[in-house]
Structures are given as C-alpha cells and as structure tokens.
Design goal:
single chain, about 300 residues, alpha+beta, Beta-lactamase, 2 domains, five-stranded antiparallel β-sheet, 13 helices, about 10% strand, globular
C-alpha cells in the first residue's frame, strides 16, 4: 500500500497539468496548486500517507457528506420529501434545474440540495450550536478534536456567493427553507470552510465503510445509502465519469479534496487544489483512478 501511494504522489508531483484552482472564492484562489496529499485508512486500523497528507485544506463540498448524515439524524427519511436522490447532470451551482423542478433540488450534493440539508440540521438550533454539532460529529468520526472552521474562508465565500444567495431565495420562495435565508447561508458557508488534512478526512470517512471496529455514528443502512449517493451524485456532472474511472463512492469539493469509501476495506482522502472542467480535483481524480487500478478495489467486483 505504501508503495502504491508513493508512486501516485510522485506521479502527481511530476504532472505538468494540475488544473485550475477555484478562483471565484478569493481565499481559495491563493492556494498553491502544486500541493498533493493522499491518505488511506484501512479497516484493520492501519493508516498510510504520502505527499502533503498533513496539510489542512478547505473541504468545501466534501462537508455535504457529514451535513447529510446530520440532517438524516435530525429529520430521518422525511428529508427526502424536500430533496431528491437523482443525479443532476448539471453543474453544482445550476439554477435552471431548481426552477424546472419547482424548488426541490435534484440531490443533496449539489449546492441547492446542500442548502436544504443545512436548513434541516439548523431546525431548532442557532447557527453556532448547529455548527458545533456538525464539528462534534466530524471530530468523533475522525477521533481528532483538532478540526476547525476557517473563518476567513467562510467570510470570503459569503462575500462572493451570489449564486448561492439566489438559490436560497428561490428555495424560500417555494417554501423549501424553514429558517431565515441569511441564517442558512451563513451556516452553509461556515460548514464548507471546515479545514482538514487528508489524514483527518480519511479517518473521518471510516463511518461509511461498514467494517468491524469502525466508528458507528449512523446505522449501516443509512451509511450505505449515503455511499450510494456519493457514487451517483458525488461529483456533480462528472459523477458518471468518476464512477466509470474509479468504481468507488466519492465526494469532491472545490477546495481540491475528494473523500472516497471502499466498502469493507478503507476510507481514502486525496487532495490537489487544481480542478478539472467539472469542478473536481484533476490530479485527485487521476490519483484515485490509479489507486483503484493498483488495488483492484471496486464496488463492481
């Protein structure tokens, strides 16, 4: 395993094409695109790392996995009356689909759907308490209390998130937000600004792999359903391409991180800030394709 990761990290280091960082979020535009990290946390308790695996980065939409777990814990299956479970086939911040489907987002991993899940776990809580609960969940999953929100990144997102504001107001106009729009958006931007390293993220993702000794923060059935949504919807309009190339459930973020679950085997986190045309980590996707080929791991046998 260590040899696999060292080879992948060296290939990423030498790659001349690293993608483009997310320039529309000012704080993310400053990130050095030459960084690359990967971590594999296996079901037997081992942890393997290579590259910049201990450098914290903004997990962005990878946070939607943990937010969905929180929302399902709060609302149960009634959440699915407010957000769908189908791939979008559109960009993560598309407004067109939301209007066409009368304010019910296609799935919880596009931005509109994530606003609904954030709204759900916000019910009956102030934003500070709700975010504290989310951090507590992530820290418990990772077994690490040194996981925090980068307030500077959150402010940067709030200042430039005009499309998210538009979607939130449209959701509210369709009676699909229970809380004040500004409250939901503020919580959502702080959720996306959680910082973690590849090591921390891989450890936190262990609750998804359904193996003995792993953190049991959700029922096995609910964890499997989240993993299914990661497979079909976790990379936006690039989800089919990721499933075809990697064959494992994954969730990406525009900070360049990807969390991948190999059921029964391991939780994997990879980070490279440069993005491809879908808004997913370019080298991270290539690394996971190489990793799946080297290990033979796939949900398809």
């Amino acid at each position: 395993m260590q040899r696999f990761l060292d080879e992948i990290a060296e290939h990423a280091r030498l790659s001349p094409e690293k993608g483009q960082v997310a320039r529309y979020i000012p704080q993310l535009a400053k990130i050095d695109p030459d960084q690359f990290g990967i971590c594999v946390s296996t079901a037997d308790g081992a942890c393997y790392v290579a590259g910049d695996a201990d450098v914290p980065f903004s997990i962005q939409s990878v946070s939607k996995v943990f937010a969905l777990a929180m929302a399902l814990g709060h609302a149960g299956d009634s959440l699915w009356s407010r957000v769908g479970r189908e791939p979008s086939g559109s960009a993560f911040d598309s407004i067109v689909l939301l209007e066409r489907e009368q304010g019910v987002p296609r799935n919880p991993f596009i931005n509109a759907g994530a606003l609904v899940t954030t709204d759900s776990y916000l019910d009956m809580s102030a934003p500070k308490e709700a975010l504290g609960g989310l951090l507590h969940f992530i820290r418990a999953a990772a077994g690490d209390d040194d996981i925090h929100i980068n307030a500077t990144v959150a402010r940067s997102e709030l200042a430039t998130g005009h499309r998210n504001f538009a979607m939130a107001h449209y959701l509210a106009s369709c009676d699909n937000l229970n809380n004040d729009v500004d409250k939901v958006l503020g919580t959502y931007c702080h959720q996306c600004a959680i910082e973690m390293s590849c090591r921390q993220l891989a450890m936190a993702g262990r609750f998804l792999i359904d193996a003995p000794g792993m953190p049991r923060l959700l029922s096995a059935d609910r964890s499997r359903r989240i993993a299914a949504l990661m497979m079909t919807c976790g990379h936006y309009d690039g989800s089919g391409d990721f499933a075809f190339r990697v064959g494992l459930p994954g969730k990406s973020g525009v900070g360049g991180g990807i969390l991948v679950a190999a059921p029964g085997k391991a939780s994997i986190a990879v980070w490279s800030p440069g993005l491809n045309q879908y808004g997913n980590s370019k080298l991270g996707t290539e690394a996971m394709e190489a990793f799946a080929r080297m290990t033979g791991w796939s949900v398809f046998g």
